[in-house]
Design a protein that fits this description.
By secondary structure, the chain is of the alpha/beta class. The protein has 14 helices and ten strands. The chain is 48% helix and 17% strand. Strands 1-8-5-4-2-3 form a six-stranded parallel sheet, with helices on both faces. A two-stranded antiparallel sheet has the order 6-7. The N terminus is likely disordered.
Length: 357
């Protein structure tokens, strides 16, 4: 497993065009390209179109939404790059949420075996998590991120102004990954999240909190780029969370990724108490808080087999065993926690019986 101590340059700015101009200058004229998605294109690109046109940058636009994080969309980007003469020394600028940065990062990292890409994340979730750390990928066969690569963007340009146009659901979806960062590494970060007023957002304060979250992500990425060990911390809540997300998708009642992670964290806090002695009083308080923000995905007993089956595809599994990342306490992780089917069913039953807030 390759470890890496290098990571992309992360730039916080309220003037993304200035930063972009400096990056574009590093590449040959005509060899810089732009990928975005429909909604971001409509809301934000009118402010960028003149700039990109003046730099001679061509754009490909993908339909918005998680169901477009798929092979056909990758092909669309590959074709665009191919038809416009992209080569190994080219740069692809990705502007969008996590769907787009995962997808276009994957397209860039595989086209001609990999060209540079730069992420400009436009959702909270992509600013604190998806655009950073080099996991790229697409969903395949009903499974989350089933095909992907590890390749870091050359830079990530974070501008909190983009967050002024995202809706409340997408804001709190991103918030779940921040809560995860607090739980796995930083009680201080968790405390600031508990008191942050996200009904009345102070964008300067938000930028600082985003920075704290990104620091947690960077720590694990820098120490274990290809997830051989401690990077699995960043997957807390995701073994169950991805199963909930896939189940909801196949039952035509999709949930946002961060919501699924919140449901997954509730389930895995239960397992954390049983397997690692996570304090019960704190577990109760956290679950109540999460239920209050995220509500519940209602599940039935007959869903348990399917959820378990989905978990058997988790990327942390080894030798047919389902491995969770669990917490002995806030800020401490225990990776590779193998749980048997019976215990997983107990956890699902615990989740099922919770009363929505
Ligand atoms: N690579 C990683 O490490 C990593 C980490 C976490 C999540 N992810 C992935 O990220 C994806 C979720 O990302 P997401 O939550 O950003 O979803 P998303 O990209 O689908 O964006 C959410 C919604 O917000 C819209 N949107 C984007 N920017 C906007 C803006 N500035 N204003 C208004 N609307 C805007 C989009 O069109 C979409 O409707 C999932 O596929 C998840 O698996 C990847
Ligand atoms: O960066 C990581 O490592 C993560 O696990 C971050 C997660 O929030 C993210 O959802 C990631 O895409 C999940 O990866 P996967 O390997 O479980 O598909
Ligand atoms: Zn996630």
């Amino acid at each position: 497993m390759g470890n890496s101590n290098i990571y992309s340059k992360i730039i916080y700015t309220r003037s993304p065009q200035t930063e972009l101009r400096a990056w574009i200058k590093k590449y040959e004229p005509g060899k810089v390209f732009l990928a975005t998605e429909k909604k971001v294109d409509e809301i934000w690109m009118p402010q960028f179109d003149d700039f990109f046109q003046s730099e001679g940058i061509k754009k490909v636009v993908i339909p918005a939404g998680e169901n477009n994080k798929k092979l056909e969309s990758v092909e669309k980007i590959w074709k665009f790059l191919s038809q416009n003469g992209a080569d190994r020394k080219s740069l692809l600028i990705n502007i969008g949420g996590g769907m787009l940065t995962d997808l276009a990062g994957f397209a860039a990292s595989t086209f001609k075996r990999g060209l540079d890409f730069l992420n400009v994340p436009t959702t909270l979730l992509s600013q604190v998590d998806a655009s950073v750390g080099g996991k790229t990928g697409i969903n395949f066969n009903g499974l989350k991120n089933e095909v992907g690569t590890f390749k870091e963007p050359v830079a990530v340009i974070i501008n909190t102004d983009f967050l002024k146009t995202i809706d409340r659901e997408n804001f709190i979806s991103g918030y779940a990954e921040m809560i995860k960062h607090g739980l796995i590494k930083s009680p201080e970060h968790l405390d600031e999240l508990k008191i942050f007023d996200f009904k009345n957002i102070d964008y300067n304060q938000l930028q600082e909190i985003i920075r704290h979250s990104v620091e947690v992500k960077k720590y694990f990425v820098a120490n274990d780029f290809q997830e051989g060990g401690i990077r699995k911390a960043l997957n807390f809540g995701h073994t169950a969370g991805h199963a909930f997300e896939s189940l909801a998708m196949e039952q035509n009642r999709p949930v946002l990724h961060g919501y699924a992670v919140a449901y997954g964290m509730i389930t895995e806090l239960f397992l954390s108490e049983i397997k690692c002695g996570f304090p019960l009083n704190e577990q109760n308080g956290l679950i109540e808080w999460l239920l209050n923000i995220y509500g519940k995905l209602e599940i039935e007993k007959f869903d348990f087999e399917r959820l378990f089956e989905l978990m058997t595809h988790d990327k942390k599994n080894e030798s047919g065993r389902i491995n969770f990342t669990l917490l002995p306490k806030i800020g401490e992780i225990a990776i590779n926690q193998n749980c048997e089917k019976e215990l997983i069913f107990d956890a699902l039953n615990f989740y099922k019986n919770l009363k929505p807030a």
